Amino acid sequence: MAIIVDLDVHLAGRGLSVGEFADAVGITPANIAVLKNGRAKAVRFTTLDAICRTLGCQPGDVLRWVPDDGTDEA
């Protein structure tokens, strides 16, 4: 299973740089890069709240699940 973070699409659509977004969310640009590149092991709810507040979206708009082998796992 893989959780994909779709921040690039939202940042591009709003014309936000990683630096501007990081400032608005309150985390470092390096941590935004970790999220964007799929290397994050966890996301705090406070960070997810700040991301959604900044982008005006729902958590499901930036996070999606993709099965590794093409089958749903429950």
Structure, explained:
The chain is mainly α and 74 residues long. The protein has a single domain, classed as Orthogonal Bundle (434 Repressor (Amino-terminal Domain)), CATH 1.10.260. The protein has helices at 7-14, 18-25, 29-36, 45-55, 59-62, and strands at 2-5, 63-66. Helix 2 crosses helix 3 (29-36). The radius of gyration is 13 Å and the shape is globular. 5% of the residues are buried.
Give a brief description.
This protein has 74 residues and is mainly α. It is built from five helices and two strands. Helix content is 53%, strand content 11%.
The total of beta strands comes to 2
CATH topology: 434 Repressor (Amino-terminal Domain)
Overall mean confidence score, pLDDT: 91
Structural class: mainly alpha
Order of secondary-structure elements = EHHHHHE
Q: What level of helicity do the residues show? A: 40-55%
CATH hierarchy, class: Mainly Alpha
Domain unit count: 1
What's the gyration radius in Å?
Answer: 13 Å
CATH architecture: Orthogonal Bundle
Number of helices: 5
Strand content: 5-15%
Question: Main β-sheet, in a few words?
Answer: 2 strands, antiparallel
Q: Rough shape?
A: globular
Order of the strands making up the biggest sheet: 1-2
Runs in which pLDDT lies below 50 for 5 or more consecutive residues are: none
Features:
single chain; 434 Repressor (Amino-terminal Domain); 74 residues; mainly alpha
